[in-house]
């Protein structure tokens, strides 16, 4: 019930903001997020994000949300270009480099993805998932031993165990990989 109330409040807030000012980029961006998360209406969400960007081309949130949406829809090259715009606008946000790396990994552009992740580590060394993603890149490159070492460096305990399970399996360490997997399931 509490979740439904929160969703209703989010919908009402976005609707109210759009009624008060239909040219408010943030309201269109918020509406787009609601359409993605709660309605799975990706076409309308994309239209809302694009309207937000017409109104405020430098809007980091709308640009990042659009990059995320188009990437999930399989338009990874467009997602990369949009995420690069986000980074150009604010190069010191580690999450922006992480997001870019995710799109690049999916495209098989491992060198660029690794560079983006190394930048994210430099900006925010304790941020979760950087070393997990670096380990995944090594697995995809066929270097499972290097992946195990990177997985051990992951700062977040959940993602460390996850990365270890993947890397150890890829490295032929079945007993260790099974133990990591059992730990994930238990936790």
Question: Characteristics of this structure?
Answer:
mainly alpha; single chain; 187 residues
Helix content: over 70%
Q: Could you report the average pLDDT, rounded to the nearest whole number?
A: 96
Query: Strand pairing plus helix content: what structural class?
Result: mainly alpha
For the largest beta-sheet, the strand count, sense and barrel status come to:
none
- From the N-terminal CA to the C-terminal CA, the straight-line distance is 27 Å
- Estimated radius of gyration: 19 Å
Which spans of ≥5 residues are poorly predicted at pLDDT below 50? none
Number of strands: 0
Can you walk through the features of this model?
This protein is mostly helical and 187 residues long. The chain has helices at residues 2-20, 25-39, 42-55, 60-72, 76-89, 94-106, 110-123, 130-141, 144-153, 157-170, 174-186. α7 (110-123) runs antiparallel to α8 (130-141) and α8 (130-141) runs antiparallel to α9 (144-153). The two termini are 27 Å apart.
List the helices and strands and how they pair.
Elements: H1 2-20, H2 25-39, H3 42-55, H4 60-72, H5 76-89, H6 94-106, H7 110-123, H8 130-141, H9 144-153, H10 157-170, H11 174-186
Helix pairs in contact: 1-2, 2-3, 2-4, 3-4, 4-5, 5-6, 6-7, 7-8, 8-9, 8-10, 9-10, 10-11
Question: Could you give a quick summary of the protein structure above?
Answer:
By secondary structure, the protein is mainly alpha-helical.
